[in-house]
């Protein structure tokens, strides 16, 4: 089996085990970035939003107050939790690395803390799925681990900028300019940092996240 497939399967069972055992891992309050993204989507006339790696709906619940939200999530347990927590959103089980049956073009994508989970090959695959789903002129709002995070550089280096920063936890820490490389033809609307505290096994942990918002160009410009 190719290395990327093994990684993806290991990640899928990791998330399934966690959601099955811990339920709503990060609680019910949305990330502040959900309100920030909503304001941007509103000002851009966005009506439909796709959330890749939607989890149990922690952030879709805030977005679905205002937008028509669909999500794709690998963990069956998370999808089940999301159906109770955020029944307005249409969250389906599947992989964000491949096209999904019945998917529709959307005006906006909210991709929160997902893309840094993958090695380079799969980051490229996810970026391609986002580019395919987003209509030209649509808005991508993305957050990911930043190279300013304390864990950047800790543990074994798997690839440039990608570290096994804790036992069993690999992440890519994005440097300035890397998202633009992943999304050629996108016009940057906003680049910022936020520090977010989330509950974990050892109590609250602060993460330094990059926020990257950009407008999709024509599909031919992206390929
Ligand atoms: C760090 S969590 C972020 C959760 C979510 N974005 C939120 O707003 O709460 C990463 C999520 O991505 C999901 N995920 C990981 N790999 C995936 C894949 N290949 N396809 C779909 N979802 C995936 C995990 O199951 C998990 O729910």
UniProtKB/TrEMBL annotation:
Presence of keyword Methyltransferase: yes
Keyword Repeat part of the UniProt annotation: no
Transmembrane segments: none
Superkingdom: Bacteria
SUPFAM superfamilies: S-adenosyl-L-methionine-dependent methyltransferases
Keywords tagged on the record: Methyltransferase, Transferase
Protein name in UniProt: Class I SAM-dependent methyltransferase
